[in-house]
Specification:
The complex is a heterodimer of chains A (about 425) and B (about 260). With about 425 residues, chain A is an alpha+beta fold. Chain A folds into 2 domains: about 1-220, 3-Layer(aba) Sandwich (Rossmann fold); about 235-425, RNA polymerase II/Efflux pump adaptor protein, barrel-sandwich hybrid domain (OB fold (Dihydrolipoamide Acetyltransferase, E2P)), CATH 2.40.50.100. Helix content of chain A is about 20%, strand content about 30%. In chain A, strand 4 (about 55-60) and strand 5 form a beta hairpin. Chain B contains 14 helices and no strands. Chain B has helices spanning about 5-25, 30-40, 40-75, 80-85, 90, 95-105, 110-115, 125-150, 155-160, 165-175, 180-195, 200-205, 215-225, 225-255. In chain B, helix 2 (about 30-40) crosses helix 14 (about 225-255) and helix 9 crosses helix 10. The two termini of chain B are about 35 Å apart. The chains are: A alpha+beta (about 425), B mainly alpha (about 260).
Chain lengths: ~425, ~260
């Protein structure tokens, strides 16, 4: 188990502030953050390459804060992999064992098996310069594991690869991590990678961990606007708590011209009191579309308005919707097959539905004592964070973009997100 | 005429300049004298002394350059800028001034103590090595540092995460990776030491069969107006220098690829 306790480090004017994190034994914890958010600095601080100004690091309960790098027993795969170019693949991989003076046949066989598992056994005599990108990543992973350290720090090791190869290596890493019971702390800017690989995920923004938790929780319930924005969520609306009951939270959202109902069980942050301002968000894929000519028995979280734009992408498409009587734009993501099945045109009057459990309350206006997660880092708001949703308008598009103007238009089908078929019945398309 | 042709023209002009200088020696070249001078005991001594002292000086300079270049390349420490700046001292002051500084040093009490208790340097062959070492140390350090700067620190960091001590990481990773740069530093130091004249003559003097290196022998021949003899010695020195450098370069191409 790797534990970071309130660590802080500074490089120039950039600082890591008060980071606490626990990577459980045999689990993969991914820190996701934009370029320049301090991810590499954090890994370097854990390794001891950067001096901590505060805090401590524990490995398996043993403090290693002041241990020299080679005594920490943490392997590291940097972004550029740092494979030794003057050594062959085999010599790179055996470097750790040789440095530790381990020569027994058992270890050598273990390394051979590892190379075979990863598919690089035939490359043993090759020089590093003659390897492809994917082969290099494999060698770097095997070298890190072969050194006998159970703890691995990975710094965006797949960022230089194309999507197909990257996915292949995700599976490989996941398999290695589970089968060898490795404790992995990985940093990446790739959100998909983070949720694919991470048992737990932390979001890092400007040198601070803004949210930490089980991957699913972090994905479904971003803690605050900055995190939601980082995930690319644009449906963020300001509102005011109307009713706060045991079972549900009712939020009046003037920008949507509607009242939203969120089941209490789905609320991560409990708002202070009725009348308090709050911010509500929903992922575009969780917004569902209904044609207004179809009867709907759902009245909660239902909005009517105009389909203003259809943006074709690939496997999924983006629809822009403007609730009646407002200038707010709601983003909806629909799968390709759904778009094809239902006939929609720009300018159509449609209804959209927010599934209550998919709505999340952002913690920007939370009351005291709220927690993002059990191993949350500092939740201090940074002045640099972009709070563009503060006005509660979601995002706006210019007048020219609304209505029928602009964008590729064609008749489309309907659906957003992942509704269950039973829930939707004849109302709409089941995702 | 495009850029490529112009640049190649300049490269050949440089070659031509030096080639003309070498070829002009042939105007005074006398075949019989060449072998006679080459095989004379005094010339052979000068050749041996030059090669020996230049090799020892270059080895010592490179050996000292490696750790200091590592410190300058990898570490931050108080006085780093001062160390870095003073590397250029041998280039800033003339070789004669450098020799004079050495001579003056051995005339102060501490230098005198070294002379009486330790090794003799003034007017001694040790002085040749010392003069050449001092002249080449700055260049060797500068070139070695440049070679180490090219090797990312990341390699050593990763080696250490794999269990290597800082020293092991340096010897197993950084040093082999900068071997080309290191070889270049040694070769240039050796060439500079071979041609060193000013500091050598000031500290070690011009004693035949004792401190007479090839450059000094050339100077002595010229000072006695023996142009033919001078030409022969210059040709010998040119052949040794260029032959050695060319051979090392060939070996480097085959075996020192990083």
């Amino acid at each position: 188990m790797l534990e970071l306790r309130n660590i802080a480090a500074k490089v120039g004017t950039f600082a890591l502030s008060d980071i606490s994190l626990t990577v459980n034994e045999g689990s993969c914890h991914v820190i996701v953050g934009a370029t320049g958010s301090g991810k590499t600095l954090l890994l370097e601080s854990i390794l001891g390459l950067r001096k901590l100004s505060r805090g401590s690091i524990l490995l398996g309960g043993r403090e290693i804060t002041n241990q020299p790098l080679e005594k920490r027993n943490i392997s590291y795969v940097p972004q550029d992999l740092a494979l030794f170019p003057h050594l062959t693949v085999e010599d790179n991989i055996l470097y750790g064992l040789r440095m530790k003076g381990i020569k027994d046949r058992e270890h050598t066989r273990m390394v051979e098996m590892l190379m075979e598992t990863v598919g690089i056994k035939d490359l043993a005599r090759r020089s590093i310069g003659n390897l492809s990108g994917g082969e290099r990543q494999r060698v770097a992973l095997v070298r890190a594991i072969a050194a006998g350290n159970n703890h691995l720090l990975l710094d965006e090791p797949f960022s230089a690869l194309h999507q197909g190869l990257r996915r292949e290596l995700w599976y490989l890493l996941k398999e290695l991590q589970k089968s060898r019971d490795l404790t992995v702390l990985m940093v990446t800017h790739d959100i998909e990678e983070a949720f694919f690989l991470g048992d737990r995920v932390s979001v890092m923004i400007y040198g601070a961990i803004r949210q930490s938790g089980a991957a699913r929780d972090v994905y479904e319930k971003p803690a605050d606007t900055a995190v939601a924005r980082f995930f690319g969520i644009r449906n963020i609306f300001a509102g005011r708590v109307k009713v706060l009951s045991e079972s549900a939270l009712h939020v009046a959202c003037d920008s949507l011209g509607a009242e939203l109902t969120i089941p209490m069980g789905a609320v991560l942050h409990r708002p202070a009191e009725p009348g308090a301002p709050c911010t509500v968000g929903i992922r575009a894929e969780n917004v569902m579309v209904l044609k207004t000519d179809r009867p709907s028995y759902k009245q909660e979280n239902l909005l009517t308005g105009i389909l203003t734009e259809i943006l074709l992408k690939g496997a999924t498409h983006t629809l822009l919707f403007r609730p009646a009587g407002t200038a707010t734009v709601v983003e909806i993501e629909v799968p390709d097959y759904a778009l094809k099945k239902l006939q929609l045109n720009v300018g159509d009057g449609i209804s959209i539905f927010f599934k209550g459990e998919s709505l999340f309350l952002l913690g920007d206006t939370r009351g005291k004592g709220d927690q993002h997660g059990d191993d949350r880092g500092s939740a201090t708001d940074h002045s640099g964070i972009h709070h563009s949703a503060g006005n509660g308008e979601g995002f706006r598009v210019s007048g020219a973009k609304q209505g029928n103007a602009g964008g590729p238009h064609r008749p489309v089908g309907y659906s957003g997100g992942r509704p269950s078929s039973s829930q939707w019945g004849a109302d709409g398309f089941s995702g | 005429m495009n850029l490529r042709r112009v640049s190649i023209l300049f490269a050949f002009s440089t070659f031509a300049l030096f080639a003309v200088l070498v070829l002009s020696l042939l105007y005074f070249y006398r075949g019989g004298l060449f072998m006679e001078t080459l095989l004379s005991e005094r010339t052979l001594f000068s050749i041996r002394l030059s090669i020996y002292s230049a090799t020892v000086a270059a080895v010592l300079a490179t050996a000292m350059a490696v750790p200091s270049a590592y410190a300058l390349s990898r570490c931050n420490f108080p006085g780093k800028d001062a160390v870095d700046t003073i590397l250029e001292l041998p280039m800033l002051v003339s070789p004669a001034a450098l020799g004079a500084m050495l001579l003056i040093f051995f005339n102060n009490p501490f230098g005198n103590w070294i002379q009486t208790r330790g090794a003799q340097f003034v007017f001694d062959s040790n002085g040749i090595i010392l003069a050449q070492f001092v002249t080449t140390l700055g260049v060797a350090t500068r070139l070695t540092k440049a070679a180490m700067d090219e090797i990312p620190q990341r390699y050593e960091d990763v080696a250490r995460t794999l269990g290597a001590s800082p020293a092991a990481a340096f010897f197993n990773v950084t040093l082999p990776l900068c071997r080309r740069g290191l070889a270049a530093a040694f070769i240039l130091s050796w060439a500079k030491a071979m041609g060193e004249f000013g500091a050598t003559i000031t500290l070690a003097g011009t004693m035949a069969m004792k401190t007479e290196t090839l450059p000094i022998a050339i100077f002595m021949k010229l000072s006695t107006a023996d142009i033919d003899g001078t030409v022969v010695l210059i040709l010998i020195m040119t052949a040794i220098g260029i032959g050695t450098l060319y051979t090392v370069r060939l070996i480097g191409r085959k075996g020192l690829h990083a």
